[in-house]
Structure prediction request, 135 residues.
Amino acid sequence: MAKTKTKKDQRFDSIEHENLYNWLKELGCNVEVNPKLGEGIYSTTISGDFIVFDIFPKGLVVELKQQDNTGTTDEKIPYLILNIKHNYLLPTVLILQGTGWRDGCFEWAKSQVGGDLLHVFPDINSFKGWMSGYK
Prediction:
């Protein structure tokens, strides 16, 4: 998928990522895009989608995954959640946007909540409602 360039050469995976970033900025959050989060379970460097500061003392990692059609993105969710639980070391929320997820994907991801994985949202609007309660 092509990257979108915006102010300060910020790179976004999709228009949804860019729109979420803009909404967080409008909400008054300090947001870092594609932050390096350390070493992952495969001993390679891992990056998140965003870190939102000002709400949680160490920051809040926001991961947005989009799947509009049946595909393999949902197969990456267990890898992501293992990294969140073992390597991110920051509070994290996961947004599973779109209608192309396989049956059971969202339910399984939600069952993994605990430790640094604070919440799994079924869409961006649910996350926005949750975030609005903090600002």
Q: What stands out?
A: The beta strands are 4-5, 11-12, 30-33, 36-39, 45-47, 50-53, 60-66, 92-97, 117-121. Confidence is low (pLDDT under 50) at residues 1-9.
